[in-house]
Write a structure and sequence with these properties.
By secondary structure, the chain is mainly α. Helix content is about 80%, strand content about 0%.
């Protein structure tokens, strides 16, 4: 019965499907990855990572407007005020909310310190991957391959949404 339950769980798991359908891995490696990925919740880690990436895309615009604006204001007025503190408050609040979200989603899979490191803007997802798979090189490589595969899937979805050909968007 365990094989059937594992099969059903794998059928609902995108990472598991990717590994099983990839020509890069031998059947033994594929079985190992399936067995170990289901237990580690690899797809959950990827979902958290995707949310962090989107979150960073939103935050980058706020960072690019608030921080230079506050620096310019401080330079022109030659004083530190609430306008200067707002970007710092935003950065700290943003990092804390990300860390809380990461810890809440991954529960015991990550420490509080690890959640804060994973909340670092723009590089947090890379840390998250490295910290979760540091002891399992094959799983780490497969997760990177899956992430690159998902990047291609997303690019193709964007292209088809805007009805663009491959030559219209750089790789």
């Amino acid at each position: 019965m365990k094989d059937f339950d594992e099969y059903c769980e794998c059928a609902r798991d995108n990472f598991c499907n990717f590994v099983q359908n990839s020509d890069k891995y031998t059947p033994e490696e594929s079985s190992y990855l399936v067995e170990h990925s289901l237990g580690k919740g690899v797809s959950k880690i990827f979902r958290v990572g995707y949310i962090l990436i989107v979150w960073s895309f939103v935050a980058v615009w706020i960072d690019n407007i608030l921080i230079p604006g506050a620096a310019g204001y401080t330079f022109v007025k030659q004083e530190i005020s609430l306008a200067t503190a707002i970007p710092i408050i935003f950065l700290v609040t943003n990092a804390t909310l990300k860390a809380i979200f990461i810890k809440w989603r991954l529960k015991s899979q990550i420490s509080v310190g690890g959640a804060y490191l994973a909340s670092v803007p723009y590089i947090g997802f890379a840390f998250l991957l490295k910290s979760q798979f540091k002891t399992d090189k094959l799983l780490y490589i497969a997760s990177k391959d899956y992430f690159l595969y998902q990047k291609v899937v997303i690019k193709n979805s964007v292209r088809s949404f805007f009805k663009l050909s491959k030559k219209d968007i750089p790789a």
